Amino acid sequence: MESQRSPSNRGEIAPFFVMEVMRAAEERELAGDQVLHLEVGQPSTPAPAGVIEAAHRALDEDVLGYTTAAGTPELRARVARHYDEWYGVEVDPDRLMFTVGASGRLSLRSSLPSMSVIGSSSVARLPLLPQCA
Questions:
Q1: Long-range pairs for 105-113: beta carbons < 8 A, 24 or more residues apart
Q2: What are phi and psi of 129, to 5 degrees?
Q3: Full-prediction pTM beyond 0.70?
């Protein structure tokens, strides 16, 4: 049986220049120029009070450390419940995965072809980095 897989085109991904843009903006600020950061979706407002309170509680009460690669079971269960409550869609928490930042996402994206069956599909939440598309 002939393989239906095609060669990877990951080597054709364009370089990601946002860190260079951030570095150049920082240099301008250090030189005394005023810079409005829009290069990576920099937040322009403080975090909501509820988020700050939850962060304080977590720092005061929880033992912090690394999670499993898929994220904590509690997070996956809560997101599945959210989809059921808001959208009426049942999602198995074991089918959800969470990564922190772009590096984890890129690692996950590069491993998906080996984890999926030919003809199956996967979903990535937007926004995402162009290199992840």
A1: 105/129, 105/132, 106/131, 106/132, 110/10, 113/5, 113/8
A2: -70, 145
A3: no
Cα angle for residues 125, 43, 30 (degrees, 5° grid): 130
From residue 12, give the alpha-carbon distance in Å to each of 4, 9, 18, 32, 132.
Answer: 20, 6, 18, 38, 12
Name the token pair of 92: 């198995």
Residues whose CB is less than 8 angstroms from the CB of residue 83 and which lie 6 or more positions away in sequence, other chains included: 89, 90, 91
Q: What b/e string do you get for 72-84 counting C-beta neighbours within 10 Å, with b at 16 or more?
A: eeeebeeebeeee
pLDDT in tens, 69-88: 778 899 899 999 999 999 99
Extended beta strands in the chain, E state: none
29, pLDDT greater than 70? yes
Reference 130, options 4, 10, 3, 7; nearest CA is: 10
